[in-house]
Design a protein that fits this description.
Blueprint: H1 6-51, H2 56-65, H3 68-77, H4 87-138, H5 144-171
Helix pairs in contact: 1-2, 1-4, 1-5, 2-3, 4-5
């Protein structure tokens, strides 16, 4: 039974195009989600700053810089309790502070998952593009090297899809 070289060419081409398209779509969704979370964190931070026992000027400067970890540290370092506020107001401020912490942790997890997806996608696309002419034009289709390259590309593409799944879990987490 004859085996056509075009099988390799089309498979590598499909892997590269599919991963590039999927990653592009994911990046758009991730950027949208990061912007929404960042806006919510900034909104909550402004509310916390108004009632925090920490230095409000320093907190506002930190908020402008977007250094959420320092804002959390400074607010938490001042016991998070403002004696000028009622118990209910302090509880509301604490709830807002916890939401800020949750948002910051979520942003960090999303960024880590995004970079993991990026660092898995790029090499697989480059490998597929490089292997395309090698296996299509220079190697015998039944060659163990050609079959191994194709198998590695398919397994690597599956790993990329798994990293996309992990990214989406972080993006849509509450």
């Amino acid at each position: 039974m004859p085996f056509d070289h075009s099988v390799y060419f089309y498979t590598y081409s499909t892997i590269a195009q599919t991963l590039a398209g999927a990653f592009g779509f994911l990046v758009a969704a991730v950027v949208f989600r990061i912007q929404a979370i960042s806006a919510r964190v900034a909104e909550l931070a402004e509310q916390v700053i108004q009632h925090s026992p920490a230095d409000p000027q320093r907190l506002r400067q930190i908020r402008v810089d977007g250094n959420w970890a320092e804002l959390i540290s400074l607010h938490a370092g001042n016991n998070q309790f403002n004696t000028r506020l009622s118990k209910e107001q302090n509880e509301l401020m604490d709830l807002q502070f916890q939401q800020i912490r949750h948002g910051v942790l979520l942003l960090e997890r999303i960024r880590e998952a995004l970079f993991a997806s990026l660092y898995s996608t790029g090499p697989v696309i480059l490998f597929s593009i490089a292997a395309m002419p090698i296996t299509s034009f220079w190697l015998d289709p039944r060659s163990p090297i050609a079959v191994l390259c194709l198998t590695l590309a398919i397994l690597s593409a599956a790993f990329c899809l798994w990293s996309y799944f992990r990214l989406m879990i972080n993006v849509f987490a509450n």
